[in-house]
Amino acid sequence: MPFEKYTPPKKGPKLVAKPPKASILQGGQISLNSAAYTEHLKGAKHVELYYDASAMKIGLKPKKYPTKAGFPLRAVGKGKSTYRVNAKKLMEHYDIKIKKKLTVMLHWNDKEGLLELAL
Q1: Less packed terminus of the chain by CB within 10 Å, N or C?
Q2: How do the pLDDT tens digits run along the chain, 119 residues long?
Q3: E strands in the chain
Q4: Is 105:80 a contact under the CB 8 Å cutoff?
Q5: What is Dmax (Cα atoms) for the chain?
Q6: Residue 112 three-state SS
Q7: What is the dotted CATH code of the domain comprising 22-118?
Q8: Cα 43 to chain center, whole Å?
């Protein structure tokens, strides 16, 4: 019987699938985890921001290229697994006050082609 090479399994943290999640920070930053980016904004380098005052929702429309109304979407953090957009101007314009980090529900709006964040 020939020899069979044994290769020990790699050690390290087990990858756990995380649900898509978004947070809005006090300074107006909108933060998306990698699951939210991959599922809804894959390939986007910019987003256009929308606001629905009656439904209290912020909308992010993915864009691959810069537009006049676009905001850069940056990969940040360890391993570049978090994506952020600076929405401070939108928050100020619509007088949206965030007192502490707010984790929000996500919903993809097929009709409008944007990711909705319910405040």
Answers
A1: N
A2: 688 878 877 776 655 668 899 999 999 999 999 999 999 998 899 999 999 999 999 999 999 999 999 999 999 988 888 999 999 999 999 999 999 999 998 999 999 999 999 99
A3: 22-24, 29-33, 46-52, 57-63, 70-72, 74-76, 82-86, 102-109, 114-118
A4: no
A5: 75
A6: coil
A7: 2.40.330
A8: 12
